[in-house]
Amino acid sequence: MFSSDYLHAILLGIIQGIAEFLPVSSSGHLVVFGKLFEKWFGSQAADAGENALFNVALHLGTLGSILVVYRHDLRALLRDYRLCAWIVVATIPAAVIGVLFKKKLEATFEQPLLVACGWLMTATALWYGQKIGRNQRALAEMTIKDAIVVGLFQAVALIVRGFSRSGSTIAGGLFCGFTREAAAKFSFLIAIPAIGGAGVVEVGPLLWHALTGSGNSEKLAHLSRDDVGAMLVGALVAFIVGWVALEWLLRLIVRRGVGIFAVYCLVVALFTFAWQAYERF
Question: Would you tell me how many other CB atoms lie within 10 Å of the CB of residue 132?
Fold first, then answer.
């Protein structure tokens, strides 16, 4: 019989694959849909959606999508030391915040209202980024100042659940005057160390304990075979859906811009506020 854990993993994998690259916050969607699944299917769905380890597994699935779509750019990147340096610079703010405030950030997985506030921030950043951005500069013109600005946008997205990482960094690139294509490309290139680093920070210690037998891992102790299987299924679904979504998104951003995503974030934020108000009052 097909376990409900796997159904939840597939559903959340689809959400992650679509929302990771669309500038609408995949983590925010996992929070809100995790709570909705809790109401519809019981507590197991909420555990899957809110569990940081499961969330990392989904993100690693979409990391594979980026590596596939940008495989040619990544090979060229090995010879572009300047752009490599700007990727490192843009990654530092988020890396520092991720290491220093990891526990506090995980606690925000339970708060849909914070997600709604983050969606409002995403809508605002995207709208203003497209409105005032000059849409002229190429990625080859990037400076250390631009890298820092985009990196700070990414760091804020890490702090505020619902403030889309891709949306914030694309908006940051647009604020700096880059073309929509250049802003999107840099956003997804810096996602590689950001997502990969988060995976190492979360999974690395657990694997070390498992391999060496040293220390105790509460998260590993509670993982069953079905839990691990659900994570792998969710990651695979996120990879496949993410691959398709990223290819489509790049074409859409170049042709139409990001205004439609600003509208979407505004709508889901208002829906979440209304839902939470109904639940509380």
Answer: 10
Look at the alpha carbons of 155, 169, 19, 130 in this order and tell me if their dihedral is positive or negative.
Answer: positive
CA pair distance 169, 153, nearest whole angstrom: 6
Report which listed range, 58-72, 94-108, 191-205, is most confident: 58-72
Tokens coding 56: 């990392």
Average pLDDT in the chain: 84
Cα(166)–Cα(88) distance, rounded to whole angstroms? 17
53 within 8 A of 204, measured Cβ to Cβ: no
Number of domains in the chain: 1
The answer to whether 22 touches 251, Cβ cutoff 8 Å, is: no
Task: Name all contacts of 152-155 with Cβ < 8 Å and 24+ positions apart.
Answer: 152/93, 153/125, 154/90, 154/91, 154/93, 154/94, 154/190, 154/194, 155/93, 155/94, 155/96, 155/97
Domain that includes residue 115, residue range: 4-280
Q: Which ranges constitute the DSSP H helices of the chain? A: 4-19, 26-41, 43-50, 52-69, 71-77, 81-100, 102-107, 112-132, 144-159, 165-175, 180-189, 191-212, 218-221, 225-256, 259-280
Q: Is the pLDDT of residue 60 over 60?
A: yes
Chain length of the chain: 281
